[in-house]
Amino acid sequence: MQASHRPQVYLAGPDVFYPQARRHGEALCAICAAYGLEGLYPLDAPLESGQALHSEAIYRANRDMIIRSDAVVANLRDWRGPEPDSGTVWEVAYALALGKPVVGYLPESLSYRERFRALAPDGRDQEGNEVEDFGLPLNLMLVHSLTAVVYGPEEGYAGFRAALEALQQVIKI
Length: 173
Fold this sequence. Notes:
- This protein has 173 residues and is α/β, with parallel strands linked by helices.
- The protein has a single domain (8-168), classed as Rossmann fold.
- The protein contains 6 helices and 5 strands, in the order βαβαβαβααβα.
- The protein has helices at residues 21-34, 55-68, 86-97, 112-116, 140-143, 158-168, and strands at residues 8-12, 38-40, 71-75, 102-106, 148-151.
- It has a 5-stranded parallel beta sheet with strand order 2-1-3-4-5, sandwiched between helices.
- The longest helix has 14 residues, at 21-34.
Protein backbone atom coordinates (compact mmCIF):
# COMPACT_ATOMS: atom_id res chain seq x y z
CA MET A 1 0.00 0.00 0.00
CA GLN A 2 1.40 3.39 -0.98
CA ALA A 3 1.79 6.07 1.72
CA SER A 4 -0.34 9.15 1.18
CA HIS A 5 1.38 12.33 0.08
CA ARG A 6 1.69 15.02 2.72
CA PRO A 7 1.21 18.39 1.02
CA GLN A 8 4.45 20.34 0.88
CA VAL A 9 4.38 23.95 2.02
CA TYR A 10 7.20 26.37 1.25
CA LEU A 11 7.83 28.58 4.29
CA ALA A 12 8.65 32.04 2.94
CA GLY A 13 9.76 34.90 5.15
CA PRO A 14 12.69 36.73 6.66
CA ASP A 15 12.86 33.99 9.32
CA VAL A 16 16.08 32.70 7.74
CA PHE A 17 17.80 35.84 9.08
CA TYR A 18 16.59 35.42 12.66
CA PRO A 19 18.99 34.47 15.44
CA GLN A 20 18.80 30.69 15.77
CA ALA A 21 17.27 30.51 12.27
CA ARG A 22 17.82 26.76 11.87
CA ARG A 23 16.18 25.98 15.21
CA HIS A 24 13.31 28.29 14.25
CA GLY A 25 12.93 26.43 10.94
CA GLU A 26 12.86 23.09 12.73
CA ALA A 27 10.04 24.39 14.94
CA LEU A 28 8.08 25.63 11.91
CA CYS A 29 8.49 22.27 10.17
CA ALA A 30 7.41 20.39 13.32
CA ILE A 31 4.27 22.53 13.50
CA CYS A 32 3.60 21.77 9.83
CA ALA A 33 3.91 18.04 10.54
CA ALA A 34 1.32 18.37 13.34
CA TYR A 35 -1.04 19.80 10.70
CA GLY A 36 -0.35 16.94 8.27
CA LEU A 37 1.95 19.06 6.09
CA GLU A 38 5.61 18.87 5.14
CA GLY A 39 7.31 22.21 5.70
CA LEU A 40 9.97 23.25 3.20
CA TYR A 41 12.26 25.71 5.00
CA PRO A 42 14.58 27.76 2.75
CA LEU A 43 17.71 27.00 4.80
CA ASP A 44 17.08 23.31 4.14
CA ALA A 45 17.15 23.77 0.36
CA PRO A 46 19.32 21.08 -1.19
CA LEU A 47 22.26 22.60 -3.03
CA GLU A 48 23.74 20.64 -5.91
CA SER A 49 26.69 18.50 -4.92
CA GLY A 50 29.93 20.44 -4.92
CA GLN A 51 28.19 23.81 -5.24
CA ALA A 52 29.68 26.57 -3.15
CA LEU A 53 27.19 28.42 -0.99
CA HIS A 54 26.64 31.53 -3.08
CA SER A 55 23.65 33.67 -3.90
CA GLU A 56 22.73 32.13 -7.25
CA ALA A 57 22.83 28.60 -5.83
CA ILE A 58 20.55 29.64 -2.98
CA TYR A 59 18.19 31.36 -5.43
CA ARG A 60 17.94 28.26 -7.66
CA ALA A 61 17.51 25.88 -4.74
CA ASN A 62 14.77 27.96 -3.10
CA ARG A 63 13.03 28.56 -6.42
CA ASP A 64 13.01 24.80 -7.01
CA MET A 65 11.49 24.23 -3.55
CA ILE A 66 8.69 26.66 -4.45
CA ILE A 67 8.13 24.82 -7.74
CA ARG A 68 7.74 21.45 -6.01
CA SER A 69 5.61 22.81 -3.16
CA ASP A 70 1.85 22.53 -3.10
CA ALA A 71 1.41 25.92 -1.39
CA VAL A 72 3.28 28.76 0.29
CA VAL A 73 2.89 30.25 3.74
CA ALA A 74 4.57 33.66 3.97
CA ASN A 75 5.64 35.67 6.98
CA LEU A 76 4.85 39.20 5.75
CA ARG A 77 5.82 41.08 8.91
CA ASP A 78 7.49 44.45 8.64
CA TRP A 79 11.14 43.93 7.79
CA ARG A 80 13.76 46.66 7.94
CA GLY A 81 10.96 49.20 7.66
CA PRO A 82 7.16 49.06 7.34
CA GLU A 83 7.20 46.74 4.30
CA PRO A 84 7.62 42.95 4.07
CA ASP A 85 10.97 41.46 3.11
CA SER A 86 11.49 41.94 -0.64
CA GLY A 87 12.77 38.38 -1.11
CA THR A 88 9.63 37.05 0.53
CA VAL A 89 7.45 39.19 -1.71
CA TRP A 90 9.30 37.75 -4.74
CA GLU A 91 8.70 34.21 -3.47
CA VAL A 92 5.00 34.99 -2.99
CA ALA A 93 4.71 36.42 -6.51
CA TYR A 94 6.56 33.48 -8.04
CA ALA A 95 4.28 30.98 -6.29
CA LEU A 96 1.22 32.93 -7.40
CA ALA A 97 2.51 32.92 -10.99
CA LEU A 98 2.75 29.13 -10.72
CA GLY A 99 -0.88 29.00 -9.58
CA LYS A 100 -0.17 27.93 -6.02
CA PRO A 101 -2.24 29.03 -3.02
CA VAL A 102 -0.41 31.51 -0.80
CA VAL A 103 -1.41 32.44 2.73
CA GLY A 104 0.31 35.42 4.31
CA TYR A 105 0.48 36.20 8.00
CA LEU A 106 1.17 39.35 9.97
CA PRO A 107 1.62 39.89 13.71
CA GLU A 108 -1.28 42.34 13.94
CA SER A 109 -4.10 43.72 11.83
CA LEU A 110 -2.90 47.30 11.41
CA SER A 111 -3.63 48.95 8.08
CA TYR A 112 -0.85 49.82 5.68
CA ARG A 113 -1.25 53.52 6.52
CA GLU A 114 -1.16 52.78 10.28
CA ARG A 115 2.07 50.80 9.84
CA PHE A 116 3.61 53.82 8.06
CA ARG A 117 2.35 56.33 10.65
CA ALA A 118 5.77 56.93 12.28
CA LEU A 119 7.39 57.60 8.88
CA ALA A 120 4.42 59.37 7.30
CA PRO A 121 2.23 60.96 10.00
CA ASP A 122 0.37 63.11 7.46
CA GLY A 123 -0.11 60.27 4.95
CA ARG A 124 2.94 61.28 2.91
CA ASP A 125 6.44 59.86 3.15
CA GLN A 126 9.64 61.90 3.56
CA GLU A 127 9.69 62.63 -0.18
CA GLY A 128 6.07 63.81 -0.21
CA ASN A 129 4.69 60.65 -1.85
CA GLU A 130 1.25 59.48 -0.76
CA VAL A 131 0.98 56.31 1.32
CA GLU A 132 -2.05 54.37 0.08
CA ASP A 133 -4.98 54.18 2.44
CA PHE A 134 -7.49 51.49 1.52
CA GLY A 135 -7.65 50.11 5.07
CA LEU A 136 -5.72 47.01 3.95
CA PRO A 137 -2.82 45.52 5.91
CA LEU A 138 -0.42 45.52 2.93
CA ASN A 139 -0.15 47.02 -0.52
CA LEU A 140 -3.40 46.34 -2.39
CA MET A 141 -1.67 44.31 -5.12
CA LEU A 142 -0.29 41.89 -2.55
CA VAL A 143 -3.46 41.61 -0.44
CA HIS A 144 -5.76 40.91 -3.37
CA SER A 145 -3.37 38.28 -4.76
CA LEU A 146 -3.15 36.17 -1.62
CA THR A 147 -5.42 33.25 -0.85
CA ALA A 148 -5.75 34.65 2.69
CA VAL A 149 -4.14 37.08 5.11
CA VAL A 150 -4.26 36.11 8.78
CA TYR A 151 -2.96 37.61 11.99
CA GLY A 152 -1.23 36.47 15.13
CA PRO A 153 1.95 37.24 17.02
CA GLU A 154 5.14 35.41 16.20
CA GLU A 155 5.53 34.44 19.85
CA GLY A 156 4.20 30.94 20.24
CA TYR A 157 3.89 30.76 16.44
CA ALA A 158 0.27 31.98 16.65
CA GLY A 159 0.35 33.77 13.28
CA PHE A 160 2.01 30.79 11.62
CA ARG A 161 -0.58 28.40 13.06
CA ALA A 162 -3.39 30.68 11.87
CA ALA A 163 -1.85 30.61 8.37
CA LEU A 164 -1.72 26.79 8.38
CA GLU A 165 -5.35 26.63 9.50
CA ALA A 166 -6.35 28.98 6.67
CA LEU A 167 -4.34 26.86 4.24
CA GLN A 168 -6.12 23.71 5.39
CA GLN A 169 -9.36 25.26 4.13
CA VAL A 170 -7.85 25.46 0.63
CA ILE A 171 -5.79 22.29 0.15
CA LYS A 172 -6.79 18.72 0.82
CA ILE A 173 -4.85 16.96 3.54
